[in-house]
């Protein structure tokens, strides 16, 4: 694509080429220390999810290769949507790879901010269905839990202390946009117990060694389901507060399911019971 055509198609695009650029230095800091107020998302799927959710996009960085693919049709529409939402910058491939969180970047990175609601502001539907991370430390597993909660139509995913960071690049990618589709709330355990007690929401802990199967349990009432880390399982505090322990019957030789699969099975069974 010629330079003249590029300027016409991508009017308003600025170029950053120096690693010492203030924005680049700020993005590198955010990459190391993400938070709800400033985190980075990578890839067109996550950026589109952020746009559709109304999340605050500030700066969007585009590689030359990605720009070349936006020359016409839906690509140009996507570019125009980005231009309305944020400042756009072209970044050469070597610098783009330095900013990216993946080995094979997809050509688009955005700085984003998201209002993370407080637990007491959560208005769950009736009957409530909530997923909880009980110290899931692996970002990919936490992201998979958020994705499953989103897909099953849960009201929220509550993340307790000791869990992975919600806004790390690995969690965000594994959530497949789930952080933009449902409330993901950081909350302490005392605050959580109070919230559940005041709203008469039962707490279930998914446990491979429980005596009660999810298929033999009425899951139609207000329910919060906690999932622990694959290596550590549930904390003693969660087991002490749980109203019931639930298991997924495993018929093959596998000892258990990973967090994402277990969350999907349990939450979808609760959703199925509510619509049957």
Report on this model:
With 276 residues, this protein is of the alpha/beta class. It folds into 2 domains: 3-113, 2-Layer Sandwich (60s Ribosomal Protein L30, Chain: A); 119-275, 3-Layer(aba) Sandwich (Alpha/beta knot), CATH 3.40.1280. Helices cover 40% and strands 19% of the residues. The chain has 12 helices and 12 strands. It has helices spanning 3-9, 22-32, 44-53, 64-68, 74-85, 93-99, 139-152, 169-175, 178-181, 189-198, 236-241, 259-275, and strands at 14-15, 39-42, 56-62, 87-90, 108-113, 129-134, 156-159, 184-186, 202-206, 212-213, 223-228, 244-247. A 7-stranded parallel sheet has the order 8-7-6-11-9-12-10. A 5-stranded mixed sheet has the order 1-4-3-5-2, with helices on both faces. Helix 7 links the parallel strand 6 and strand 7. Helix 7 (139-152) packs parallel to helix 8 (169-175) and helix 7 (139-152) packs parallel to helix 12. The longest helix is centred in the last third of the chain and has 17 residues, at 259-275. The radius of gyration is 21 Å and the shape is elongated. The model is unreliable at 1-9 (pLDDT under 50).
SSE pattern, N- to C-terminal: HEHEHEHHEHEEHEHHEHEEEHEH
CATH class (first level) name of the largest domain? Alpha Beta
Q: How would you describe the shape?
A: elongated
Quaternary status = single chain
Strand content: 15-25%
Helical content (DSSP H or I, runs of 4+) = 25-40%
Number of domains: 2
- CATH fold descriptor of the largest domain: Alpha/beta knot
Averaging pLDDT over every residue, what do you get? 91
- Count the helices. How many? 12
The total count of strands amounts to 12
Low-confidence stretches: 1-9
Radius of gyration: 21 Å
Structural class: alpha/beta
Largest sheet: 7 strands, parallel
**N- to C-terminal distance:** 56 Å
């Amino acid at each position: 694509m010629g330079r003249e055509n590029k300027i016409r198609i991508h009017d308003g695009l600025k170029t950053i080429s120096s690693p010492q650029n203030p924005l680049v230095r700020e993005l590198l800091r955010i990459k190391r220390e993400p938070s709800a107020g400033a985190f980075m998302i990578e890839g067109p799927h996550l950026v589109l999810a952020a746009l559709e959710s109304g999340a605050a996009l500030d700066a969007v960085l585009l590689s030359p290769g990605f720009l070349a693919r936006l020359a016409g049709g839906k690509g140009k529409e996507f570019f125009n949507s980005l231009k309305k939402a944020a400042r756009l910058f072209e970044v050469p491939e070597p610098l783009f790879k330095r900013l990216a969180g993946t080995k094979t970047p997809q050509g688009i990175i955005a700085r984003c901010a998201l209002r993370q609601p407080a637990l007491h502001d959560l208005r769950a539907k009736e009957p409530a269905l909530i997923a909880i991370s009980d110290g899931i430390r692996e970002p990919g597993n936490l992201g998979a839990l958020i994705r499953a909660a989103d897909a099953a139509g849960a009201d929220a995913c509550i993340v307790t202390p000791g869990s992975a960071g919600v806004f790390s690049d690995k969690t965000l990618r594994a959530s497949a946009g789930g952080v933009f589709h449902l409330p993901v709330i950081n909350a302490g355990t005392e605050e959580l117990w109070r919230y559940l007690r005041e709203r008469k929401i039962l707490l279930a802990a998914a446990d491979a060694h429980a005596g009660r199967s999810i298929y033999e349990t009425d899951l139609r009432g207000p329910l919060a389901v906690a999932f622990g880390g694959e290596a550590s399982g549930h904390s003693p505090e969660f087991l002490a507060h749980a109203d019931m322990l639930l298991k997924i019957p495993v018929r093959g030789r596998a000892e258990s399911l990973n967090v994402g699969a277990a969350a999907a099975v349990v939450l979808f069974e609760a959703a199925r019971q509510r619509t049957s």
